[in-house]
Amino acid sequence: MMTNMPGSYPCCVLMGEAALKTIDHVVRAVYDETGTEWGGLLWGRVFAHPQGGSVPVVVAATDGICEATRVSCNILPASWEAGRETLSALGITGLEVVGDFHSHPRMRVFLSAHADVPAYWSFGHIPHWLSMVVDPWHGDYGIFARRGEQELYRAPSSLASEEVLRILDLPVPARLSPRIPSAYLASAIHPSRGGNHDDPYHAHSIR
User: Which of the two residues, 156 and 5, has the higher pLDDT score?
Assistant: First the structure.
């Protein structure tokens, strides 16, 4: 049984399907409109793994307030309050910020040395902090975390079903965002297992 314990480095990450779909929708929509990167915040709780380390569980993602270009994204402090307001509007309570996400449109997933790595270490006082980079155009999703005082790595990650969230006594979002149609959630929330690699949700693991 996992218990709440935010004080050690992540050994793996679980992500709710609604959170991943929110990220996918937001970054695609912004790129289609502006041609830029975009980002936001990851919300959830952190649990202790019985064999050591922590397991952040991401339940929800919220759209950020960002300064973004084609190759950069600065998630502004106002994103925290905006995120709390979004979750409140959805009736989601009891979550904390466990990390951030931003897109690398058609560039694959990595942490850039000049911007992403320094941005990560600005949260270096939070051992379980996550930085997620997504490129849904290539079906590439990566979550980076600490495994030492100075080391970052791409953490093993998997999708968490609604049943898993309920077992952990976590909320199960009924909607993605006030701005995203509920039909989008209903039509796309379940990953395909049919081998359609044009669908980034064809597998349960997030690479």
Answer: 156
Residue 4 DSSP SS3 = strand
| Mean confidence (pLDDT) of the chain | 83
Single pTM value for the model: 0.84
**Per-residue b or e along 178-187, where b marks 16 or more CB atoms closer than 10 Å to that residue's CB:** eebeeebbee
Would the pLDDT of 85 be above 60?
yes
d(CA 103, CA 36): 9
Mean pLDDT, rounded, for 134-157: 91
Domain ranges of the chain: 3-181
What's residue 180's pLDDT? 61
Cβ–Cβ under 8 Å, residues 52 and 12: no
Residues near 186 by beta carbon (within 8 Å), at least 6 away in sequence:
none
pLDDT of residue 188: 42
pLDDT above 90 as % of the chain = 64
What's the start-to-end Cα distance of the chain, in Å? 25
**How does DSSP assign 36-101, residue by residue?**
S--EEEEEEEEEE-TTSSEEEEEEEEEE--EEEETTEEEE-THHHHHHHHHHHHTT--S-EEEEEE
* 36 touches 70 (CB < 8 A): yes
What is the per-residue burial (b if ≥16 Cβ within 10 Å, else e) of 121-130?
eebeeebbbb
CATH class in words for 3-181: alpha beta
Are 59 and 13 a contacting pair, CB within 8 Å? no
